[in-house]
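Lest this sound abstract, we think one record worth quoting, the chain in one-letter code, the fold tokenised, each line plainly labelled:

>
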Amino acid sequence: QLVESGGGLVQPGGSLRLSCTAPGFARDYFGIGWFRQAPGKEREWVSSISNSGVTNTGYAVHVKGRLTISRDIAKSTVELQMNDLKPEDTGVYYCAADPMNRVGWDPGEYDYWGQGTQVAVSS
């Protein structure tokens, strides 16, 4: 129900654009968040966006200024533009849906998850 795409291998300083296709969730006032999980580490919050109306966004401190989250209600997608990528950005990126439409960092607030897309930043 949530499908991520756009991952791949990129050199440091490069860019990727991740997409989360979420038919039904975009129209049903669900907030959408992006999380990532590096090998051997816990899943961590990256960014979130609320549904339409007054759109609220949030970013983790370590990505602020490099990542931009946006949503296209008509296409039922949420995208994450990632610029100036660093090796520490490597991991599996997941999108998730929050039925309470929060812009939260806690994975427990998200009830629905995609399968993830791999991002590798390496020279």
In short: The first strand starts at residue 3 and ends at 5. The radius of gyration is 13 Å. The chain has a mean pLDDT of 91.
